[in-house]
Amino acid sequence: MHKSLKMNYLTNIKEVVLIAIAILSLSYSGVAQEYSAARIWNEMVLNAIRGDFARPTVHARNLYHTSLAMYDAFAVYDDVNETVLLGKSLGGYTCDFEGIPAPADLTAAREMAISYAVFRIVQHRFKESPRSDDIQFNIRLVLSAFGYDQGFTSTDYQSGNPAALGNYIAEQIIAYGLQDGSNEENDYANEFYEPVNPDLNPFLPWYDPVFDFGNPRMNDPNRWQKLDIPNFVGQDGIETDNGVPPFLGPEWGLVTPFALTDDDLTIRNRDGHDWWVYNDPGPPSLVDTLDAMGTTDDYIWGFSMTAHWKSHTISDTNLVWDISPASLGNLTEIPETIEEIRDYYDFIEGGDKSTGHVMNPVTGLPYEPQMVPRSDYARVLAEFWADGPASETPPGHWFTILNYVNDQEQLEKKYKGEGSWLSDLEWDVKSYFALGGAMHDSAISAWSCKGFYDYLRPVSAIRYLADNGQSSDPGLPNYSPLGIMLIPGSIEQILDGDPLLSFDSSNYGNIKMLANVFEDEKYYFNADYWLPYQSPNFVTPPFAGYVSGHSTYSRAAAEVLAAFTGDDFFPGGMGEFHFEKEGSLEFGDPGPSLDMSLQWATYVDAANQSGMSRIWGGIHPPIDDIPGRRIGEKVGKAAFEKADSYFGAPESSSVAVLGTPAELSVYPNPVLQSGMIHVRSETIRGGSHLDIVDANGQFIFQMEINTDEELTLDLSNLDINAGLYNLSIITIDNRVATTKLMIVK
C-alpha cells in the first residue's frame, strides 16, 4: 500500500530536504543517491508551489519552465537531443548561445547545470510567496547538499563551468517569461476582465428585501460570481484578510504556448476586448432568462445532478460499491453531444457507465474486488483530487503521480516502451519536459475558455435554481421553468408538517436538500445554504468553471504518461493510493469508515475519476467535465509529439559531443541478482576500458574494451561481495562516464 499524496506543506518539505541531504551527502562516500538530480529539484519545485498562492495557471507555467530548464541543461551536452531555448527563437524571444566545451564528467556536468538552473528560477519565481523564507531556505539547503556554491552567479557558460551554464539557462528563461504574455512583471494581474455579478457570501442565503439580509441576486445566471469569504484560506494555508482573490487568469490565452498552434486558436470578442481561445469547445449549457419557456433543460439537468451527487458524500455505510478496476474504469471514448453526455453518467447512483477490466494484463489475474461504502468513495475521491489549500495544484498533482510511477519497481524505463533502458536522469528530465509542456498548454486552453465563457460555479447556479423553485412538476407548489429538479430523498420541497416549515408558512414549497442520515432518518437543510463538499473556508476555486481544469490537465497527463512509458496501464497493471480509516479526510466528519485505496488500471481511468471527483465535490457540472477531457486528450497528444520531436532516438539518446562518454545504462536492472549484466554506452570504443570499483576506491574488476557494441559481462566467477559499486568506462584520453551497480547475493 502507498501513502496518500495529500501531505501538508511542512511535512513534505522536511521529508524532501532530509532525503536530499542524506542521499547527496552519502554519495560523496561512494553510496549512490536514490534519486536523480532532476527528481530532487522537481520535488523542490512542487514544495515551493505548496507554499505559494492557489494559482494553477502560474504553476503549470512554473513546472513547464523548470522542466524546460532541466531538459536544455541535459540536451546541450550531446549532439542528438535538440535544445528548446538555447540557441533558438521561442515565442518571439531569441536566446543567444555559442556552444560549450565538452565536460570531463558528463553526468556531473548535467547535474550541476540542472541544479543551478532550477535553483535560480525557483529563487526568482517564489521570492514573493507567502512562505518565501521557507522556500528559499530549503532550496539553498539542497544546493549545498549537492556541494554547490550558492554564491556563484557567473553566466559565462563558455568557460565550461556547468554552474555558469545553469545560471545562464535560468537567466534566459526568466527573461523569456517576462515577455510571454503572462504579465508576470505585474504579478500576473488581470488587464481587462471585469465580473458582471455582485459578490456572493456563500454562508448567507439569497437577499431578503423585507429584512434587508443576505446576498443580492445575480445579474446574469450564466456568468461567474466572485465569492466573498472573510476568512478565506489560500493555497498557502494562511487565512487572508482580503477575502477571495479575483478571477485567476481569465486572459491566460495570451500566454505563449508549448505545442498549441494557430490552428488551435480562435479569437473572439466580448465587452470590446479580444479573447484568445484555444481549442474552443463552443458555449456551455445556458439558461434563457428572457424567455424561460425557451430555455433548454441542459443547464437545469447538469446543476441538479451536481447537487444530487453532493448528497452521496453524506456518510452512509449501507450502500457499498466495488471500487476496484474490476468494476470501475475502461471507458476511453469521450462523449461528443449533450445527449451522449447525459447517457455517460449515472445521474441517480453516481459515477459513469464503465464496467471495469476483465483482468490485470501484467499479472494475468482478475483484479481483486474492493468493497467500500459509496459515501466513503465519493468523499475520498473528492478530497484526493481537490487540490485546495496546501496542495501542489492540479498540474503539480500529476507530477506527483508521475514521480509515483517512476518509483515503481515494475516500471521499465524504456522510452515509449522500446529500446534500451534510460538512466534515471534522462528518464526524469524527458518525462518532466513532456508532462510540463502538456500541463502548460492545458492551462492555456482551459483558462482561455474560462475567461471568455465566464461560466458560473455550482454554488451560484444551484442557489439560483433553488431560489426560483422546482421545475419537475407544474402541478406542485413553487413551480418555475427556471427551477431545480426534484429528486426524492435528495432534493425535495418544504411542505406541510416539515420541521423546516416556518411559523407563518412563508417558505412553503421552498427547496430543501439532504443534510445528513442518522439511524436511517434523513435530515434536510434550506437550499439557500447549499455548499459544495470542500473546505468551508475555501468553498470553490476563484475562477470560472467552464471548462474543468482538472479534466483538461488530467486527460492531457494521462496521454503523456501512456505515450512516454509505452503502456496505457500503470506499472504492474494498477496505480494505488491508500487512505487510512478515520484519519484521511479533512472537509467533513473524520473518515473514511474503513481503510481503502483509490485504484486505477490505466492513466485514463485515473483521469476520468479526477473529472468526476469535481462533480461529487460540487465544483463542476457535467458540461464542464467532458469538454475539458476532449481538450485534454488533444493537448496531451500534441504536447507529447512536440516533446518527442526534440528527443533523439532511444538507442542513441545518450550520445555525448566530442566523443565524451555517455551516461551508462546497466540493464535489465542495476541490481544484479545473477552473474550476467549488459552495459550500454554509445561512445564505447576500442581502446577504452571498464572498471568496477568498490566504495573504498579499490578495483574489483577491470577489462579492456575492444568493441564498439554494448557489452555483456559475466561476473558470476568473480569473488565479489554484495554491496554497491561504481562501474565506469574510461576512454583512452581519460574521459569518464560512471553509473552505480548493486550486487545482491
Query: Which range does the strand content fall in?
Result: 5-15%
CATH class type of one domain: Mainly Beta
Helix content: 25-40%
Morphology:
globular
Quickly count the helices: 15
Low-confidence stretches: 1-14, 21-33, 650-674
Distance between the termini: 27 Å
Mean pLDDT: 87
Strand order of the largest sheet: 13-19-18-15-16
CATH architecture of one domain: Sandwich
- What's the main sheet like? 5 strands, mixed
The radius of gyration is 28 Å
Give me the secondary-structure category: alpha+beta
CATH topology call of one domain? Immunoglobulin-like
Number of strands: 19
Structure description:
The protein contains 15 helices and 19 strands. It has a domain at 661-743: Immunoglobulin-like (Sandwich), CATH 2.60.40. The strands form seven sheets. A five-stranded mixed sheet has the order 13-19-18-15-16, with no helix packed on it. With 745 residues, the protein is of the alpha+beta class.
Briefly summarize what is shown.
A hairpin with a 2-residue loop joins strand 3 and strand 4. The N terminus is likely disordered. Helix content is 33%, strand content 12%.
Which descriptors would you attach to this protein?
disordered N terminus, 5-stranded mixed β-sheet, 15 helices, 3-stranded antiparallel β-sheet, alpha+beta, globular, 745 residues
